[in-house]
Amino acid sequence: GSYTIIAHFENSGGLKSKALVSMAGVPIGRVAEISFDSDNYDALVKMRIDARYTNLPSDTSASILTAGLLGDKYIGLTPGGLDEFLQEGDSIELTQSALVLERLISQFLFNSSDKDE
């Protein structure tokens, strides 16, 4: 058994279906589906969480992380402090999108060229 929760990300940055969902480094689920939300113009990620983990606080946050320097993307959950828990179909409100290496490099190069002038 498992239940589904969703999260919106500005950029899914190479996250794939079946990617790991973990909390404190422990696998607790998998990404079920990634789609484009045309109403919000962002990525909508559905996650299947193992039914053993029914006590995730409703203010839990989600980040798209990278395993190692250039490894696979996964979702890391960080628990909040509320006594209410996420349930089937609930949405995680606080999210952090993937860091896109190309974007970081271009920002670095752009900032470096500004200092040269």
Q: How is this structure best described in words?
A:
The chain is mainly beta and 117 residues long. The protein contains one helix and eight strands; from the N terminus they run E-E-E-E-E-E-E-E-H. Strands 7-1-4-3-2-6-5-8 form an eight-stranded mixed beta sheet, with no helix packed on it. The protein is globular. It starts with a strand and ends with a helix.
The largest pleated sheet is described as: 8 strands, mixed
What is the average per-residue confidence, as pLDDT, rounded to a whole number? 90
- Alpha carbon gap, first and last residue: 60 Å
Strand order of the largest sheet: 7-1-4-3-2-6-5-8
Structural class: mainly beta
**Helix-strand string:** EEEEEEEEH
- Count up the helices: 1
Strand content: 35-45%
Q: Rounded to an integer, what's the Rg over CA atoms?
A: 16 Å
* Strand count: 8
Estimated helix fraction: 10-25%
Low-confidence stretches: none
Shape: globular
Topology:
Layout: E1 2-9, E2 20-23, E3 26-37, E4 42-50, E5 61-66, E6 73-78, E7 91-92, E8 94-96, H1 101-116
Parallel strand pairs: 1-7, 2-6, 5-8
Antiparallel strand pairs: 1-4, 2-3, 3-4, 5-6
